[in-house]
Specification:
Layout lengths: L2 H4 L16 H19 L5 H11 L7 H10 L6 H13 L3 E4 L4 E4 L8 E7 L5 E6 L4 H10 L8 E5 L2 H8 L1
Parallel strand pairs: 3-5
Antiparallel strand pairs: 1-2, 3-4
Helix pairs in contact: 2-3, 3-5, 4-5
């Protein structure tokens, strides 16, 4: 984690999810970050919560609650829907995951522990998702909010299109 992320802020960066990277390191760093945050905040990072985050970190695509439930069941964590929903709710509430509204699914946060406004780029062909940073207080939305005296507290930006891998396949 960068020092700026540790301070609770992130600098603009390339979207995380479509580019090639050390995925094993990505998973390890995400789990370690969550463990440290939970320890510092006095939160219980239970085995089912840890496994749910690990499952989300394994791919850069959003997973629905029932797909998560299937994977948790396969890992020995029970088969009742509240198992998945409670774990996902904890991960979202503590900034380890985001809900992708368009897909009614969840994805691991690319910037855990950082104060940020994510923007999601969703591939309509393979459902992969990349997370980038948005600036809701700037641009036309920020201007409209400022003009009306509205204070933006949270935004969800979701764009649908075609990821680089699918675009390359289409050109081949």
């Amino acid at each position: 984690m960068t020092s700026s992320a540790q301070a609770g802020k992130i600098r603009p960066s390339n979207p995380i999810g479509f580019e090639k990277h050390d995925h094993g390191s990505c998973i390890s760093a995400g789990l370690a970050s969550a463990e440290l945050h939970c320890q510092a905040a006095g939160l219980r990072f239970t085995p089912v919560r840890r496994k749910a985050l690990e499952i989300l970190l394994q791919e850069h695509r959003a997973l629905g609650a029932y797909e998560m439930l299937d994977r948790l069941r396969d890992a020995g964590f029970g088969s009742q829907p509240p198992v998945a929903y409670r774990a996902l709710e904890f991960l979202v509430a503590n900034g380890f995951a985001h809900k992708i509204e368009r897909l009614n699914a969840f994805i691991a946060c690319a910037h855990p522990g950082a104060t940020h406004s994510p923007a999601f780029m969703i591939c309509r062909l393979c459902d992969s998702v990349a997370e980038a940073q948005s600036s809701p207080a700037r641009g036309s939305l920020g201007d409209a909010a400022h003009a009306t005296g509205f204070k933006i507290e949270r935004t969800v930006v979701e764009a649908e299109g075609i990821c680089p891998a699918c675009a390359d396949k289409a050109e081949a």
